[in-house]
Amino acid sequence: GVVSQIDETQRLARAMLLQAEQLTGRISDRRRAVFASALFQRSYALLGIDLWRDIGASLPRDLRAFRFVVGDMWDRVESRATPGLLTLLGLAVGIAIHLRVAVLAASLRLYIEFVRGTPLLVMLFICYFAFPALLGYRTTAEQATILGFILFIGAYIAEDVRSGLRSIKPGLVQAGLATGLTRWQALGLIVIPLALRRIIPTLFNQYVRLLKFTSVASVIGVQEFTGSAMLVNARVFAPVTILAFIALTYLVLCLLLSSIGRVLHARLAV
Which of 77-81, 179-183, 235-239 has the lowest mean pLDDT? Predict the structure, then answer.
């Protein structure tokens, strides 16, 4: 494998460097570093590996999953729509529970409690293994991951929506009814818009959680950002650099999402 080839390459490079030092005597640290780099690439060539061509060819392939981290894989519409779908699910569930729709509200409450008591990784396993086996359909790792994220984050958004709806004073609804609006019109024109404005911070907090949760998708075979970066690390073995790059990337994206949420909340807060 690649790891064993790298180990063999490092061993060969050290042996060649030691032999060169014995022949040439003491050399400066800078010259030793340049010489070691040349020997390292030369040892790769002796093993039939072109170091930079191999790394250069693998990086675009392995890091293409970066687009999936931000929910924007241009070649897959369903993953691009994931944030919108989980928001719509949370909105629908939250409204149904708020309206106390008989059996439906009780069933949705059970769904929320189940999700809140289940780890995300278990939810992904359920969507990838259990649902296809029970319902008799085929799925891919990416489709199962998208479904798992929608069900998982959607449940938390539903609770945020429900709390936002309950924060609206009943007097506003009564005022709307007094002007001739029906209850559904008051809900759609007064209650929901105001509630959505109030839950903008918590809504974007869920989007940040979704962004970070994508790092576990590689467990069921999805080629996402963190897993792809670790594949690169297996090739070049630079854990400090690659892990720092992963952390910095997530930090920048999370700060960007949080900043968008703060700007929207500042403009739309009521």
Answer: 77-81
Residue 19: closest CA among 2, 39, 45: 39
> What CA–CA distance (Å, rounded) separates 214 from 253?
13
Token look-up 């909340």 returns: 265
Q: Give the orientation angle of helix 141-166 with respect to helix 82-99, to 10 degrees.
A: 40
| pTM more than 0.90 | no
Contact, 87 vs 203, CB < 8 A? yes
- Close Cβ partners of 176 (under 8 Å, ≥ 6 residues apart): 185, 186, 189, 190
pLDDT one-digit tens code per residue, 238-270:
888 889 999 999 999 999 999 999 999 999 876
Residue 43: exposed, middle, or buried by beta-carbon count in 10 A (0-12, 13-18, 19+)?
buried
Selection from 269, 34, 30 nearest residue 164 by Cα: 269
